[in-house]
Design a protein that fits this description.
alpha/beta, TIM Barrel, DNA polymerase, domain 1
């Protein structure tokens, strides 16, 4: 069975490979089904789908939204969306506007610390309409301020760090509704990054989101331990949510993530998990 990866990013947001290059990599890595889930944009979907048709890789339309959960960031993956849906397009424009309001403030904070950086440099590094913190990190690497993007987040850009500026976000229910109105399947991304980590804390949250229209949880993720995966799978079973998995591949900006490598040991999604995903998402493929 070919590999499956339902979480990847291209240069349309903060990845380092173009959608076409990403699909070509999927082909080389034996990934037969890939979802392109760029941050707050679907601009790369058409190119990815065209490349997928040419290279024999099945592409699932996707997007990743940032929403506000108790003043902390939560991510929602949306699968099988209609990229041209006007409600979705308006929602994405709103999210990009929030980013545009935040980015100059990050510049100001970095400059106040004596770091010579300009918005023009970050825009050039991004090369797209969606500018995110990883682009700031790459500029800091090029300037020799830090050795890696991970270090940039650890010292400056991560939550609670000196140059971190929170941006306005949708509420989880708003994000879920936006994805559902675009014909999508909303899935909670990498739950390991939520503050609530105990079973008893996560259960009511997932029940609330399920009632709002959430359909799945990304239980399989490279930074989830075997214990984490078991916990999230059990939570999915108790709340009636589907289980998905993805690498969160970004390319050079996140070299630890490899396309198609989902398990803690670097292995692919188990075959039985892939089969279950195909059963519920397959008939609805774009």
């Amino acid at each position: 069975m070919k590999k499956m990866d339902l979480h990847s990013h291209s240069t349309a947001s903060d990845g380092s490979l173009t959608p076409r290059e990403l699909v070509a990599l999927a082909k080389r890595e034996g990934v037969g089904l890939m979802a392109l889930t760029d941050h707050d944009t679907v601009d790369g979907v058409a190119e990815a789908r065209k490349a997928g048709e040419e290279l024999g890789v099945q592409i699932l339309n996707g997007v990743e939204l940032s929403v506000d959960h108790e003043h902390r960031e939560m991510h929602l993956l949306g699968y099988r969306i209609d990229p041209g849906n006007p409600v979705l397009q308006e929602g994405l424009r709103r999210l990009i506007h929030y980013r545009e309001e935040r980015n100059p403030k990050i510049i100001e904070r970095l400059r106040s610390m004596g770091i010579p950086i300009t918005m023009e440099e970050v825009t050039q590094e991004a090369g797209s309409t969606v500018i995110g913190r990883p682009h700031f990190g790459r500029v800091l690497v090029k300037k020799g301020v830090v050795a890696s993007v991970d270090e940039a987040f650890a010292r400056y850009l991560g939550s609670g760090k000196p140059a971190y500026v929170p941006k306005e976000r949708l509420l989880p229910e708003e994000g879920i509704a936006l994805l559902r109105r675009a014909g999508g399947i909303p899935v909670l991304a990498h739950p390991i990054f939520l503050a609530e980590q105990s079973y008893s804390e996560l259960l009511p949250l997932l029940q609330r989101l399920k009632a709002a229209g959430l359909m799945g949880i990304e239980a399989y993720y490279p930074e989830h331990s075997v214990h984490d995966i078991r916990k999230f799978v059990r939570l999915a079973e108790e709340t009636g949510l589907y289980v998905t998995g993805g690498s969160d591949f970004h390319g050079g900006g996140k070299p630890s993530a490899r396309l198609g490598c989902i398990l803690p040991d670097g292995g692919p999604l188990p075959e039985e998990v892939q089969k279950r995903i195909e059963e519920w998402i397959g008939p609805c493929m774009n």
